[in-house]
């Protein structure tokens, strides 16, 4: 429920405006002076202010300045008498949203208030999309032909019907976990509210806490003003916590409390704030292993794992590969004005036998690169990058000389073989450490340790 503050020294005006807005379903607060208003804005999360410029001995313009210092994002509608239109224009220059001249009709008030609140919602959504850790939604449907994908779609449609159910999406990097989360949101009753995504592995603990829960002015050195967190931004909508397995244990405890109480408390704050948010989490880690290692709370796992959805890797969904490849070929063919129409049988065989360590993300990048560099009408093996033409299935074990290995001893031979195998996996993935770790079936941290021990360097990304 949106919260509106009325600031007017005339009780008659306050009472009439309060009645109109309360009848329309808003929560209304009232203040007779600038002092009262400042206290309310400091303590409450106000969505909109109606401010009379003539507050007896107080200057409404000064009150506006002070409220904007407390909350720069606050929307303010100015109420002014006939003789103070010039002051209203000054208020607009200071960031007021609109002004209304007295006397005004109830219907006009309703229209302006509704427009202001819609503007506030749009501002928040744009702010979310502009954040560096958020990904703009690609208009890509869940594509495939196999029974596995059909089951995922069935699960997505089912859980979308229940807007409070928490969802845990598991699967390797690049399998489309965020796409599944966005589809759940889009199919649910929350579709008109924000979808807010954050990668829990992309920022340090202190910053992640502030991003999720917000902070009050003065909570830490750089906190020059109050800032709502992403849970508040996602109110009535969905928050997507990607890479939840990388979240620090200290924040896990606070997230558990949010899931239990449906309340958050800003960093440096003293009061709880009610939230109405669906939480969807995703991870490419085995959380049960993380629990055994002491890196993930078991109670949080069970809170998140209310409705689990597992997305198999692309190498286990061979029947989806032709459909996905054609989908991206058509898409990027249009983007780059190419004439590709079909995929040859031999090219399709190579695509189907490639292990796709980067999953759908890797396929998307491969097809996009082909459409940038080549033209059709037929996609042939000559168009495919070397890693697909040269590898069919998995990393081939390096050749060994048993006599030499015996002369070296078991430990030295094992080290040499391990180094060769890691080097082969890195070469196959273009030095992508995360994808190489997935091929080798070891944790990314373990692979980095072994790379350092063997003097190997990954020049590419850790993946995501």
UniProtKB/TrEMBL annotation:
GO terms for cellular component: protein-DNA complex. GO terms for molecular function: ATP binding; cis-regulatory region sequence-specific DNA binding; DNA-binding transcription activator activity. GO terms for biological process: phosphorelay signal transduction system; positive regulation of DNA-templated transcription. Keywords: ATP-binding, Nucleotide-binding, Phosphoprotein, Transcription, Transcription regulation. Gene3D superfamilies: 1.10.8.60, 3.40.50.2300, Homeodomain-like (1.10.10.60), P-loop containing nucleotide triphosphate hydrolases (3.40.50.300). The modification 4-aspartylphosphate is found at residue 52. Residues 3-117 form the Response regulatory domain. It comes from the Bacteria. Pfam families: AAA_lid_14, HTH_8, Response_reg, Sigma54_activat. Transmembrane segments: none annotated. This is Sigma-54-dependent transcriptional response regulator. SMART domains: AAA, REC. Residues 142-372 form the Sigma-54 factor interaction domain.
